[in-house]
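step 3/5: co-fold with iron/sulfur cluster
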Amino acid sequence: SQHNPVVEKDCSSITPPYAKLTKNLDLVKRILDNRPLTLAEKVVYSHLTNPEETIPVRGETYLKLSPDRVAMQDASAQMALLQFMLSGMPTTAVPSSIHCDHLIAANEGADKDVAESIIANKEIFDFLESGAKKYGVAFWKPGSGIIHQIVLENYAAPGGLMLGTDSHTPNAGGLGMVAIGVGGADAVDAMAAIPWELKAPNVIGVKLTGSLGPWASPKDVILKMAGLLTVRGGTGHIIEYFGEGVDTLSCTGMATMCNMGAEVGATTSLFPYTTSMRSYLNSTGRRAVSTAADANSQFLRADAGAHYDKIIEINLSEIEPHINGPFTPDLSTPLSKFKDFIAENGWKDDLTSSLIGSCTNSSYQDMSRAASMAKQATDAGVDIKSQFLVTPGSEQIRATIERDGQQLVFENAGGQVLANACGPCIGQWKRTEKKGEENAILTSFNRNFRSRNDGNSQTMNFLAAPEIVTAMAFAGKLSFNPMTDSLKDKNGKEFRFNPPTGDDLPHQGFEAGRATYEPPSPTPTPDASVQISIDPKSNRLQALDPFQPWNGEEFKDIRVLVKVKGKCTTDHISAAGPWLKFKGHLQNIAENTLIGAQNADNGKVNLVTDVTNNKEDTIPEVAKSYKSQDIEWTVIADHNYGEGSAREHAALQVRYLGSPLIISRSFARIHETNLKKQGVLPLTFKNDSDYEKINGGDVIETQGLKNLAPGSPVKLIVTKPDGSKLSIDAVHTLSEDQLQWIREGSALNLIKKNVAA
Ligand code: SF4
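step 4/5: write tokens
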């Protein structure tokens, strides 16, 4: 295809506002008596909305932050955009982008799959594209690439703060950005200029020394770390790398490590600014960003003597390739012990499919090193023994490996290059293996929970570096160790792999690729005249109606729909799985409201009594019945109601079905805030044991809402079915700003009012 080199970009909306950030940081440092700060703290605190008003304490203070940028993938962008439409704003407050990647299947091959996915998801893509045009959001078409790879190639910048509606957003930490995976509600905050809240994270310092040997790659470092930290070890922490080993790593390799920091539960992962970041910025058309970063290099590294909450030391020279899994990313086995591990567990030795690429591992370096393995084997006449699939992370990568020959090497080996999209990584993969049949796959992806890739719970899914995956594809056996074992060529001659080789960056620069995937302008102009396309008959998309403002009166006749016993996560309130296809349709997804909740009165899940007819039914059915009769309702919840994810649907749905308040023993903080944003009043029992006094079917009336103020008490007058009454004390945590959300009916109603004024 035609030569189409990547050109220098307009970096005005990409370069972080270093002057402002360093000024903010000076203010914070003064407050903190100039104690040395980690890089994570420097970047996060410099994005405080009111730096002069905050005393950040790690693990304690809730920070109000102003992110620089938002990125959204096609599944989670739907509700974010639908909500943003309610703000009345003509454009997003910060540069934002939408990436069509998750909805693309891997069935027949790149071109056909993209074309078919566009037909199957036309209404979603049309909606996202029209919304993007209207509000000046960069729209990346289906097939242009995977969100995190596109962000790394185009938008990530050292010292910036980005929110992305996807868990692997931390990938941009490879370019020194604090990039955090969030729910759609948080993206809406940033787009609507509502300060975004984050508890000041603790910081795990990872000191890297030495340099990687020829067989090891950055993927192996994070695979090993996943084993050390486990899937929960990073929770509430930013993982910050430092030490001289950092300077030996490629920018894209660091991105792989940050990407998989999500697998240990870290808020995000981060590297200091390095020369490899500079080279990557320059080769991807962002010299203006690297020049500005060079001038602010002091800001882009930790202060000498900075304190970490925990330090892990890793000598890169001692890292050997690892293979993690099956079914969890923290089950980490060194390659040299993998053969025994398989045998000890009695698992089948056959490798059925080998997959490389995805957002985690499709850099030029990954592709080159993987191709070097494939080339050695094919040159020696060794045939590939397993299915071999390659998912380039972006059109830029695909076009560059097409030009430089790696793609041909993969194809000559019998590999198939799939669309630049998530495909098999997110389960959009058509396989011939029978469901329920044990089989093993090896991928260079990041996640491997059961059934993730192909919906088959018996697929043993292992994670490894792309070069290891590729080499093992030629053996077709899990017991094969490419570092030590040999294979037979066509003539029966012994063949052994040499270590992988490959360049970090292409000598001839990157190719931009096909014109179909021409990148959108970094600063698209909003066009108010665009009509956002939503088919009123769609069952996947539905425009949102603004919630009604509160009349300022006490709540009366609130029916207890259900008293929930025990754990009630956002997954119990708004289940995922098959419901995900309704993410953009509030009415349809509301059919799953609280279906995972256990009724404390009868011990049953999703079974309550409709007091208007005394019949038992599911929670959503009774909620709908109450709604149709204009009966407002509430949930009595146990401890930590709404823990789990930031899923905003969990708050939107209860509000949509007619609940103006939720009363609990305690709330998970993010969900509590999400409820407030949707105009639902979260109340907590003053005396924990009062939870025992209320039951399903009771009627509640409030006292104290008329004069609601920060810290003011609220009384609940509960009428039992026999007419007896009791009074219960409750408390709320609304700030003055949040009170306005409740008054206006939602945070977005408030924004709209302010925009109109
Ligand atoms: Fe998520 Fe996989 Fe897509 Fe990456 S490639 S964004 S991990 S689904």
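step 5/5: annotate
The chain has three domains: 18-56+63-317, 322-482, 558-756.
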